[in-house]
Amino acid sequence: MIYFWAFVVGGGICVLGQLMMDVFKLTPAHTMSTLVVLGAIFDGLGLYEPLIDFSGAGATVPITSFGNALVHGAMAEAEQNGFIGVITGIFEVTSAGISAAIIFSFLAALCFKPKG
Questions:
Q1: Which pLDDT score, from 0 to 100, does residue 114 have?
Q2: Which of 5, 38, 62, 63 has the highest CB neighbour number within 10 Å of its CB?
Q3: Is 104 part of a structural domain of the chain?
């Protein structure tokens, strides 16, 4: 049943993003930014972790999970280290994903030539 709920929740997040682009005519950049902010808000309100527990990868794979990770890391580090933990917590939780994106983008740029 976890696969079903992962599909429904992940698909629902994707449908929301598609509706934002089609109905509200938002650009992909505005849509992604909005979804990251929504994930951050839901984590700040304590609603994103129960969603992850319920749907697993359906909530951890979409872009909303990045907003969740930012707030979750900042709040966890703020409890331990105070105000400076807000800054360091953001980087601690998301650094592996951001580093991987930079490295793999660089490798892809070396392997392929852009069409001009």
A1: 74
A2: 62
A3: yes
Asked if 6 and 55 count as a contact pair (C-beta separation under 8 A), the reply is yes
Q: What count of other Cβ atoms lies within 10 Å of the Cβ of residue 62?
A: 21
Within 10 A of 35 (CB to CB), how many other CB atoms are there? 21
Give the confidence band of 116 by pLDDT, cuts at 50, 70, 90: low
Q: What is the model's pLDDT at position 92? A: 86
Structure tokens at 106: 């660089």
Exposed/middle/buried for 16, CB within 10 Å: 0-12, 13-18, 19+?
Answer: middle
Q: Which of 31-35, 90-94, 107-111 has the lowest mean pLDDT?
A: 90-94
The encoded tokens of residue 77 equal 């580090």
DSSP assignment, residue 24?
S
Determine the Cα–Cα distance for residues 56 and 48; give it in Å rounded to an integer. Answer: 11
Of 77, 95, 94, 79, nearest to 39 by C-alpha is 94
**Residue at 116 is within a domain:** no
Query: What's the total number of domains in the chain?
Result: 1
Q: Which two tokens stand for residue 58?
A: 């359906």
Question: What is this structure's pTM?
Answer: 0.81
